[in-house]
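Need tokens for this chain, all 88 residues.
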Amino acid sequence: MSEIMPSKRDFGDTVDDIINNPAYEMLGGYHIFLRRMLIPFFLFIIAMLLWVWTQNQIITAVLTGLMFGPVFGLERLIAERQIRKQSK
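Here are the structure tokens for all 88 residues:
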């Protein structure tokens, strides 16, 4: 049974994978901060603004949900621009 199931990784291995991952170096080390803190905060601000403008929970939820793609696309665009700048 142990041959079929992969060995369990501990928390230290996961942290090492995150820290040593070159994908997170795109914005000078701030990429983890953007993905974990700034993007949810930005979506929260969008939801609050939509709630003030519409006063309707369903419309607010739908429009905020539709903003996930553009917000993550904007984050990716910024990261790709930074990579292109660094490579020149």
